[in-house]
Amino acid sequence: MNPTPARGDGPDAHTAAMTISTDGLAEAERARILAKAAIFAPPPATLPDGRRDLVGLSREDLAAEMAAIGEKPFRAKQLWHWIYHQGATDFARMNTIAKPMQAKLAERFVVGRPEVATQQDSADGTRKWVFAFRDTQRIETVYIPSADEDRGAVCISTQVGCTLSCTFCHTGTQKLVRNLGAAEIVGQFMAARDSYGEWPSPKDGTARHLSNIVVMGMGEPLYNYENVAKALRIVMDHEGIGLSRRRITLSTSGVVPMMDRCGAELGVGLAVSLHAVTNELRDEIVPLNRKYPIEDLLAACRRYPGASNARRITFEYVMLRGVNDSEAEARELVRLLRGMPAKVNLIPFNPWPGSAYKTSTTEAIQRFAAILNDAGYSSPIRRPRGRDILAACGQLKTDSERAKRGPAAA
Ligand code: SAH
Ligand code: SF4
After folding, report:
1. How many Å apart are CA 29 and CA 24, to the nearest integer?
2. What is the pLDDT of residues 311-366, one digit of tens each?
3. Catalytic position from the list 107, 115, 140, 198
4. Which residue among 157, 166, 284 has the greatest number of ligand 2 atoms within 8 angstroms of its CB, and so is best to mutate?
5. Is the CB of 169 under 6 A from ligand 2?
6. Is the distance from CB of 400 to CB of 138 less than 8 angstroms?
7. At what angle do helices 59-68 and 73-80 cross, to 10 degrees?
8. How far apart are CA 390 and CA 351, in angstroms?
9. Residue 119, H or E segment
């Protein structure tokens, strides 16, 4: 069992001490995490015929590709606009580029999309895609429209499978096959926009159906940080998709050293999968807790930049009947969060084939929520969406395996 958190220090003193004493350690730990991510790197973004996918390249990479074929930087700027603002996938549609140049580009490059293997619509309007990549690996992406407005969130995946085995999560029963590349991550959002015809990218301030991104699909995004960061930078670029970081929320099961980098470099909204208020229980249901216990996790949340009231950290708390849903646990949660601008999302457990837990009763969830609300923490109860098509939180899983044989996806 982990040691109990140090008490007595004010949160600020504690945070400052942590930062100083753990800086070197955290750096080493980050290097270890990134090295491990590299072992599970995606295949190169090149087709069997040698053409390269332009999606997923940073602006600098794209300019370098153009330079390599003797083109000036403005060509990269043009392409960026066509790819990310207009959503064009065919060079022949890019009518600000002369025909011979279009042909030259088409010989060497493609503007790719993940292949839609299946698409399902839930009775509640949620849409789920299974996307297949060139090496036949598959992941799931979900669009959750807001019930009363013309907006909605696309829930994107970051890994095929997951190394962590949270006991209540369907993805956790699937071994990690590999990380997704930046093209595959941003490609999910672009393919979702294709599906709803939402191109060109709507101007800042105008309504969008696909208005938000939640990085809450399959996988642990902070174990694939470089690719996730690259993809999100593309999504946030003003001359392309232009989605503000305020409309992006990344959910982590608590990879503490990478939370600092995420905050410093991306500044997207942070959601933390807490799910338990004691290390004893969290060790069991979120096994990553054995490495980064609750006190370290909460310290990282307290130092997350912009954790002001306007940009509160979201704590996710899956409601498991008789496991973590007592009133005493709600009160302990209030105590743990004291002084932190936070919001708690209570997620009724979504069952999946073979899952061992039951969803908390409505009364238990409401009692839990009331205790949090009374203490000043907004704690919405997440309405399950897309359960009928196994698209709800924690239900995503594909049958992808390592070195799976099958016809290569285009
Ligand atoms: N790996 C990241 C993001 C993906 S999971 C993470 O763990 O945060 C997205 C959210 O769904 C997490 O809060 C996760 O704990 C929750 N979740 C997993 N399985 C669930 C289930 N069966 N029912 C409800 N929520 C679940
Ligand atoms: Fe992985 Fe998140 Fe599922 Fe845990 S809850 S197994 S971290 S996807």
Report:
1. 9
2. 789 999 999 999 999 999 999 999 999 989 899 999 999 998 889 999 999 999 99
3. 140
4. 166
5. yes
6. yes
7. 130
8. 9
9. strand 115-121
